[in-house]
């Protein structure tokens, strides 16, 4: 009788629709959630662009990357370590090696570069150099940066290293120094060669290094440049991002049939800078639109929290044996960090000053005397030099005597 009663009760519950919540999950698979779906109260939160950026951005590029140049963090990537052909993006490394030589005192930007017969012979994008012509090294580098001039690239290489082959060896040595695993150069201009390749990650690392030279950004930000007056030669930039995307100030396009459309670029807005690289794009102008997609997403995700402006006085340091008793310590660059704009992802940014307790004269203006360490959530992410705001000459013997006398009388009082 008890069994019959239980069965009658279950039948009644099913008839009233109450039992669907008890038996339905076991008896009937969910058509709304799919096979094996979690119960509604155990479903994960919907994915956001921050959780899965690859799902939020669709690019035509075969390989791409978005990097924070301050820390080197990869913020978004697609086949970023895959080898592709760089085409004229190669010229960014050509400029980097030249600026390394200038910084090392092995070359000067005002020294004349003479055009060889071999340099004259290079076609493609060029400034139509003639054998025997001479231009200052900086002017040649501007031709490379703005017009992607192949002839100027070869002239620079031959001038600085004696031959293009020797210069390419320097480019490969620099790649090795930067720790690049998927880069090998065969020439200094980017003409196609199966053994001439890089990756979007490696190119972003080259761009990050290039940012240490303001001259490279200055040249690659030029939209139009008069290279010659006779015959009149006006160069127009190949990087249309300079026109289309505010904040763009570098670097280099690239195209061959084998490579597709490439772009390594950098943008800074409201103190926050990013680097983007896209490679192997087939859509017309897609190297620009893909890059803009990356930057649009990035600036929605992050902002820059500034702690000190460039050249800002952060403290004063006592000076011994100087004509004044203290010198101001100022920042060599802006100090701050990238922080999330997303709700619930606030980050703590702080600065720690690392300075000596006393400096002895003489002190030069702009002399490095310490640094600011930037911390995000307690982790060190950057270091900015602190330099002196003024020079402090050594005190004269008379000044030292007066100081001693004043000290003695102060003690007696």
Describe this structure in words.
- With 413 residues, the protein is α+β, with helices and mostly antiparallel strands.
- It folds into two domains: 59-302, DD-peptidase/beta-lactamase superfamily (Beta-lactamase, 3-Layer(aba) Sandwich), CATH 3.40.710; 309-397, Peptidoglycan synthesis regulatory factor (PBP3), Domain 2, CATH 2.60.410.
- The protein is 33% helix and 27% strand.
- It has 13 helices and 17 strands.
- It has a six-stranded mixed β-sheet, with no helix packed on it. The chain has a five-stranded antiparallel β-sheet with strand order 2-1-9-8-7, with helices on both faces.
- The longest helix is centred in the last third of the chain and has 16 residues, at 286-301.
- The radius of gyration is 31 Å and the shape is globular.
- The termini are far apart.
- The relative contact order is 0.11.
- Mean pLDDT is 87; it is low at 1-50.
